Protein: Alpha-2 giardin
Amino acid sequence: MFSCCSGVFSAGVLHRAMFFRANVAKLIKVARHPLHVRLKIAKRYQKKFGVPLCFSFEQKLKGSFKTLIQCLFSCQFDVQADFIANALKHQHIFELIIFILMMDDVQGVKGQLNVRYDIQLEIVIKRLSNKPWAQLLARWRENTVQVSVEQLHSAFKHKNERTLVQIYSGIGYENYKNICDQYAAKYKETVESRIRKKFMNRDQECFLLCHYILYDKNNCIYTCVINALQKKNDRVTILLSTVYAENIKQQLEVDHIAHILRDIISNTSDYYQLLLCEVWNTIQ
Structure:
């Protein structure tokens, strides 16, 4: 447990550390705290020094280290909204797909997109494309649907894209995993293989990622982090590490965490590397 006094102390540590490069290690130490404590520290920093903590980070730090530590001390809705807005602005469609499909509280993130950027997500995505991938993103978690294995099979068999969008945008995680297992047993073919046959290019990419998330989200996050590290995509690495690492790293296999840490060391450097290792390390 951390007391209010620890929040004041940590705010002072952060303020002093940003003025001296030798003290960046102290920034990393403070960033080890759980999210609710980091947010309390950020609030007390602004009260004590009169400026938002992330503004001070912006002025004193740089590069991916700056972005990562800013995200660690920010509300997760704000972080997700910022990354989605940036992906929309620069037409980074692959990142947009990941950022939207990974959202847990869709309405919370959409609310921040509206407040911070005046973005109505569904409208903006529909302007990008009318392809199935865009329809899926626009309707993601809009409604909850109950689906049978026969309904999913029929949608694939008759190439009914509208029904597939409806199914994948609203089906529950547990329902979907059960249906996939039943589908393979009944039709002697995996749902993944059906998606690969049904869709091509961006549609296939989007529906496959959706499939992986619905079937096993923690494992999908692990895979996406590894891919992002190896491709040096810091935006994907930072968002997934900021929003999800704290909640899932204790649930992942030890070998998976070791793999992530090895890839962090192989593909990043300097303080960014040290901070990422702290984020994913299960030993505190």
